[in-house]
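The methods section describes the discrete structure representation at length, but only in general terms. What matters is that the chain and its backbone geometry are given together, residue for residue. Nothing conveys this as quickly as seeing an actual entry. For illustration, here is how one protein appears when written out as sequence plus structure tokens:
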Amino acid sequence: MALNAVLGVDIGTSSSKGVLVGLDGTLLRSAVREHSVDRPAPGHVEMDADIWWDELVSLSRELTTGTDAEVVAVGLSGMGPCVLLTDADDVPLRPAVLYGVDTRAVDQIARLGEELGVEEIRRRCGSDLSSQAAGAKIAWVADEEPELFARARRLYMPSSWLVRKLTGAYVLDHHSASQTTPLYDTVARRWYAPWADRIAPGIELPPLRWSGEAAGTVTAEAARSTGLPQGIPVITGTIDAWAEALSVGAHRPGDLMLMYGTTMFLIHTVPGLLTDPALWSTVGALPDTRNLAGGMATSGAVTGWLRELFGNPGYPELLQLAEDSGPGANGLLMLPYFAGERTPLLDPQARGVIAGLTLSHTRGDLYRAALEATAYAVRHNIEALEKAGGDIRRVVAVGGGTQGGLWTRIVSDVTGRPQELRTTTIGAGFGGALLAAQLVTDASIDEWNPVREIVTPRPGTAARYEELYGLYRALYPATADLVHTLAAHQDR
């Protein structure tokens, strides 16, 4: 008798990941497809949508070939908010403009803020306009590529594009829509027609559903491409960080998810609407939930960059070298703003700084400084969340950066917060698989993914980091004018 299973696929910044999961939560198979983004101009970060579909097809074929498991539902997620514009025949008009790491829409953010009113945008949409706002990037395309924009008829993000390719349905989840500021009203939880018609004229905005709702079923054509059974349901899906939070059960009021990935993301579930100009207020992935969120522009991107500079040694080796370096990285202090910074600075012209370098510093010191820089930035975001009215009672860590133990220990030491680690930290694909399973069974995350470990702060180390955190907070204002001038001279 065949084992029933669900397929979860997540489209990330540096890779796509797929998981095949039994209906009891057992991880049967997993696979990865690495890819890269395009950076055609300073501040521009894009990706060809064909990559998303090609990798879903490849992952589906690999995970389902030669197994007795029968896929009964599909879960999807992807990086976001992104802007993929297509014509009326669903042909992409240009590569997708990615989320907050793409900082091109500076002029549109300023103009829309002036025209619509900064306070009114925040009141209606929950967040200020920033590099995270997909609506501002639609305005950029309209301004900079008007002939192309005149042909635009539909708006997609990675998960909704895959839904379209699999089922033919044109839908978007409420959470993703809430990051299209200023097109979506987070209070009324619907598109706000006066601003949507002004910023995205001619575009048929997608009908809205919740992330776990079925968007449709796999078509005969998609079944032939992917090897999936025709007629099985596909969830609406959502942005990867929110699926990641669901994968570890961080969706109750008071929960904070830390996602250790190419970028670091923080999602705090709150009981009601909270807004703050330094953070993002969104509706949640699940009905009747709200979040206050933050995101760094880099984290794993910096450690990956260092690894490449070091000749690509294994991560276990680098973690051991960083462990040997010890707290404080032998007097090195880093600002991790190598791609600008999102929350709480909201400064696309911020740049990385490494202070205190001498000829005696080693690879281990530099790698340790990068891990510590991320931890300081996490603490900065946590302080901003609490200043905005958040009440953080539980921290749950997830993502590839939780492997090896050192990074999570440093973050707990710097923040003074215990972190809960679940048995499976594979991330968003697992969260999408859970939502898919809930279409056909009463799957529970606590049964699927129980707690494995609690990482607790070490008092002696925490005291050392208290001093260093103060220096970290002082370093940005001390160097901001200088790095802004340097940023203006950079052509990539």
Remarks:
- The mean pLDDT is 96.
- The chain is about 40% helix and 20% strand.
- The first helix runs from residue 49 to 64.
- The first strand starts at residue 4 and ends at 11.
